[in-house]
Amino acid sequence: MLTHAGGAVRARLDSHSADDTSRALQLLLNDALSHADADEYLTSRGAADDLHALVRRGCELAFAANDLTARKVVHRALHDLYGLHVSRPRPGLGHNQYSLELLRARRTIEAAWMDWELRQTGVLGDDVAPETIGAAIKALWKGHAGHNHPVFDFMKNEASRPQIIKYFTTDYALNMRFYDLIVLSLVGIDEDVRMEVAHNFWDEMGQGNPARTHVRLYRDLLDYLKIEDTPGRFVDALGWEGLSGYNMLLYFAFNRREYFRSIGALAITELSDPDQYAKLLTGCRRVGIGTDQPSVLDYYSEHVEVDALHGDGWIDNVIVPVLRLYPGEARAVLEGAMMRLNSSKAYWDWQLAEMAAMTSAPKPRLTTVA
Prior knowledge:
Elements: H1 4-14, H2 18-33, H3 38-44, H4 48-64, H5 68-86, H6 100-120, H7 133-143, H8 150-157, H9 161-170, H10 172-186, H11 194-204, H12 214-224, H13 231-236, H14 240-254, H15 259-286, H16 298-325, H17 330-357
Helix pairs in contact: 2-4, 2-5, 4-5, 4-6, 5-6, 5-14, 7-17, 8-15, 10-11, 10-14, 11-16, 14-17, 15-16, 15-17
């Protein structure tokens, strides 16, 4: 018999309202995650079936009906479910990392989402040789609508200081998680590609200097701008686009079967960062960010310098050797690259719209001197 809470969920589910479905999914999942044992919480209330019905309905709305509110709710749910696997170890952690009901919900979301992502990739070749995969990835990158995205030209030439600062807060989640992504990409890989990934890891670690780790450099920038380091608030402010880009790289990293897509997606990340960040740095200096203390921009300036090498290094020293071992996986590598390109463009489109919606402070009126 359903408890009052379970009955309320069923009533909202039966209403077939998209808004009700999204709210009910959000509430029930948050309640389950807030308990030390989500499985016990759900089963004791007769709400496990309700959770999975809500997840399925939410995915239908998000990926078949193109309901963007539902898409944000579903991606936020996936973000929080992934958080179970990357949370800091501490006393009192519950059993939810391997909750059967939460893993089942996660897999339902991932399957529906990946079906949707694959439909967006278009026609990709599956007979690309290892020696030509680099050219194929770069052709996808340079031919994509997100290449040279206008958000970076806007920040370079026109954006106000508050608009650029907003970019830093929306960019927070993935920048702070990239260390973990590199670590996860080292697990189980072939010996002949470990060195390149290890170089990436060493750069993330500031090449052994604690003051130069990329996480520390990003926090230095936030401190300089007097932005409080509040991860929950930054995530709350993201649209589905930012959540999706974050989730994509974690999905690839957590699922071993997605390794080949993962290395394609990471190649795009390494290739695209230098030119974009160079424009961002120009915009920062134009509005006075870092002009009095240039080192606060080191997170981005270092990526301009280092990622210019990592892009080709990732292709030559990771992707090519992997495809020589598994030549039939070239299509998966290209799928990962295209999915990353698509998610990045959606995120940058959202960022540009968010910046445009900000109101600039009125300019002071000049007084006439008699």
